[in-house]
Structure formats: structure tokens, C-alpha cells
Automatic annotation (TrEMBL):
Keywords: Sigma factor, Transcription, Transcription regulation. It comes from the Bacteria. It comes from Actinomadura napierensis. Signal peptide: none annotated. This is Sigma-70 family RNA polymerase sigma factor. Residues 184-284 form the DUF6596 domain. Residues 116-166 form the RNA polymerase sigma factor 70 region 4 type domain. Residues 23-82 form the RNA polymerase sigma-70 region domain. It holds the Pfam family Sigma70_r2. Belongs to the sigma-70 factor family. ECF subfamily. InterPro entries: DUF6596, RNA_pol_sigma-70_dom, RNA_pol_sigma70_r2, RNA_pol_sigma70_r4_t2, RNA_pol_sigma_r2, RNA_pol_sigma_r3/r4-like, WH-like_DNA-bd_sf.
Length: 415
């Protein structure tokens, strides 16, 4: 049997099926049994069976259907063995019929139900993210804990509490009715966006970028775009993530330090991702229903399509941030708009906006931005103090190293 990259052909096929089919299998079993833990256990059993049987039988033409059938039969056997589960067995048999193969035609709907259930507004945001990663993407508790820099037991409890809340609150396993869909869609997209941001700009630790977390967020956004092809904000979010991620390779130097946007080597940006992101954004905007993710994608496109830093259309970016603030007001958006205004109209105009921002106590980028604007104005002693304020708040080591360099430059200039 051929071996590539340390995996046999069959092991590679199972690994690929896991990436593509885990969420589908789990979603189908949750719909069938109503038991989240049983669904995960039976899905794991199906993939274990694949590793045992595919070497002799060969990988099936439709791996998802094979895995779903095996997992479903295992779940039915488990339910039969549990005297207290007879009612669940009766309901499951009515839904699927004990002797019929799984109907894969409804799997996309099951995945959509799973996404919206994981992201119900009644669940805390951290629980939504963890449960989505666990059930839809199949990440282990240990992997999720490492991604968010928390202890594995704490993450396990977070996931358990989310599942318990779904059960105790009677949160239905379904796509919400039309009048609730906009609210719930926003929650789903918020989870994906939060996940990507944590990977793209880590809030703590040595690594400024966690590529695997970015990749998982993009993958999930693609799933959502496939499940909700008529929702322009889903397409806008995917465009935004692709455009942001296209710059990832240039965001660090050889020493692992952060490289500011205007100093990045644009030849290292991913042109294919940029083209894909711009195409998705154009498709979304043609629907005539602009939303916050489409506006942010348009801002990212302005950066990504500029041949040099000097070619960046800062007046357009400032105008887009003004539109974003009208849609989604908040201090972080105001801070980003202030930076764009400073680039378009000069640092004094930006500083006036920065000094009027409230509600960002503890956010190191506020004093860091103020320091950069003061430095550009030649007010080096004030800039140095602002850099010290930012250093006192920054947690991620790459951020701290960048601020330390800027502080030293301001101190030297101040004399």
C-alpha cells in the first residue's frame, strides 16, 4: 500500500473523510437521537470502523454515506441496549426506519441546524465557539483548549455547560423561523469572525498568528457559504477572511516579529486568495444588501489590491469606516476610522478622533495608535509615554516587542 507524508492511502482517505464528513455525520445523528454525546461517540466509532475495514474493502465511492450508515446503525444498537432509551429508539425508527440506509440528501439541512443550534443566542459566546468547533469540525477538547490558551478541563466544562444549556433550555435543533433568522445568522457569523480574529491576531502568547485557527475559520465560512448561498453577508464574511488571510505570510519577519502593514513585502501576499476574496465580495455587493462584513471586506480589498502602501486609497477606506460605524457603532470601529482619517487627512485629524474615544480601557491598541500619531506629529516625548502605556496593557509577546522598538525610537528622537 502506498505511503505518502507518513500516511497510507487508506489513512489519508479516512483523514480526508474526517475533515469533510465529521460535521455531516454528527449533525445527522443529533437530529436522529437528540443526544449530542451519543452522536459524537457513534461518529468516532464509524471512523474507527473505516480504519479497520477500508484497507480490505477499499474506500467507498461515497465515504459520507458509508460513515453515516455505520454511525447510525451503531447509534440504533446503543439505543436498543438501553432500557431507558426505548422512547428515543421509537422516535429514531420513525425518523429513519431501522433497515434503510441513511438519506444523505438531507445532510446539508442537518449541518445548518447544527450550526444554528451551536450558535443560539442563549449560549455564551465562548460556549458557542467551543461547541461549534467540537461538533461541526471535530476538533478535540485538547485542540480547542490549546487554540484558546485555556486548560483542557476548563474547556471541557465549557462544552459540557453549552450542551447542558441546550438540553435544559429546550433549544430546538432546527434552523430558526424566518422572522428570527437575521438575529441568529448574525450570531453564527460572529462566532466565525471571532475565531478567525483569535487566529489572525492572537491576544496572548509568543505566536502572533495561529495559521491552523485561521484555516478552520475559513473552512467553516466556506461551509456556511455553501449552506446559505443566498445570504450576502455570509459571502461577505468569507471574502473578508480570505482577503485578511492573504497577507498572513508577510505579517512576520524571520525572527517572528510583527511587520506593520506599510512595511510588508507585498510580493508575499497570496494573489489567488485576493482574487477569490474580491470575486466573492463583488458577488455579495451585487445583491444590493450591504452589511458590516461586506463593508469590512471592501476595506480589506482596498488594502489587498494596492500595489504599494503609497497607492492605498485612504480616503475611500475612511469613508467605508464611516459607513461601518453607522451600521455597527463601537469604539474599535471608531479607532480604526481614526487611523484611516489620519492617513487621509493627516495625523492631527486622526488624533482628535482618537482622543474622543471612550470605552477602550485596557485595550493596548488605543494608546499604541495615539503614540503613532504623536510620533508622526513630532511630539516624541508624549509618544514615548503613550508607548509605555500601551506596553503596560499588551499581552502578546510580538506586540510587546514591536512596542518596545517604537518606544526606543521615540525616546531617542525626544533626546
Amino acid at each position: 500500500m502506498a505511503v505518502a507524508g507518513g500516511l497510507t492511502d487508506i489513512e489519508g482517505a479516512v483523514a480526508a473523510a474526517y475533515r469533510e464528513e465529521w460535521g455531516r455525520v454528527v449533525a445527522t445523528l443529533i437530529r436522529m437521537t437528540g443526544d449530542w454525546d451519543l452522536a459524537e461517540e457513534c461518529a468516532q466509532e464509524a471512523f474507527a470502523r473505516a480504519l479497520e475495514r477500508w484497507p480490505d474493502e477499499g474506500a467507498p465511492r461515497r465515504p459520507g454515506a458509508w460513515l453515516t450508515t455505520v454511525a447510525r446503525n451503531h447509534a440504533l444498537n446503543r439505543l436498543r441496549r438501553g432500557a431507558a432509551e426505548r422512547e428515543k429508539l421509537r422516535e429514531a425508527s420513525v425518523l429513519t426506519g431501522p433497515d434503510e440506509p441513511a438519506d444523505t440528501g438531507g445532510i446539508p439541512d442537518d449541518r445548518l441546524r447544527l450550526v444554528f443550534t451551536c450558535c443560539h443566542p442563549a449560549l455564551p459566546m465562548q460556549g458557542r465557539v467551543a461547541l461549534t468547533l467540537r461538533t461541526l469540525l471535530g476538533l478535540t477538547t485538547a485542540e480547542i483548549a490549546r487554540a484558546f490558551l485555556v486548560a483542557e478541563p476548563a474547556m471541557a466544562q465549557r462544552i459540557v455547560r453549552a450542551k447542558r444549556k441546550i438540553r435544559q433550555a429546550g433549544i430546538p435543533y432546527r434552523v430558526p423561523p424566518p422572522h428570527l433568522l437575521p438575529e441568529r445568522t448574525a450570531s453564527v457569523l460572529g462566532v466565525v469572525y471571532l475565531l478567525f480574529n483569535e487566529g489572525y491576531a492572537a491576544t496572548a502568547g509568543e505566536d502572533p498568528v495561529r495559521a491552523d485557527l485561521c484555516a478552520e475559520a475559513i473552512r467553516l465560512a466556506r461551509v456556511l457559504a455553501g449552506l446559505m448561498p443566498d445570504e450576502p453577508e455570509v459571502r461577505g464574511l468569507l471574502a473578508l477572511l480570505l482577503l485578511q488571510d492573504s497577507r498572513r505570510a508577510a505579517r512576520q519577519d524571520a525572527a517572528g516579529d510583527l511587520v506593520p502593514l506599510d512595511e510588508q513585502d507585498r510580493a508575499r501576499w497570496d494573489g489567488a486568495q485576493i482574487a477569490d476574496g474580491v470575486r466573492l465580495l463583488d458577488e455579495a455587493l451585487r445583491r444590493g444588501e450591504p452589511g458590516p462584513y461586506q463593508v469590512q471586506a471592501a476595506i480589506a480589498a482596498c488594502h489587498a489590491t494596492a500595489a504599494t502602501a503609497a497607492d492605498t486609497d485612504w480616503p475611500q477606506i475612511a469613508a467605508l469606516y464611516g459607513r461601518l460605524e453607522a451600521m455597527n457603532p463601537g469604539p474599535v470601529v471608531r479607532l480604526n476610522r481614526a487611523v484611516a482619517v489620519a492617513m487621509a487627512d493627516g495625523p492631527q485629524a486622526g488624533l482628535a478622533l482618537v482622543d474622543a474615544i471612550d470605552g477602550l480601557d485596557g485595550y493596548h491598541l488605543l494608546p499604541a495608535t495615539r503614540a503613532d500619531l504623536l510620533r508622526r506629529l513630532g511630539r516624541f516625548a508624549e509618544a514615548a509615554q503613550a508607548y509605555r502605556d500601551a506596553l503596560a496593557l499588551a499581552r502578546a509577546e510580538p506586540d510587546r516587542r514591536l512596542l518596545t522598538r517604537r518606544l526606543a525610537e521615540a525616546d531617542r528622537a525626544a533626546g
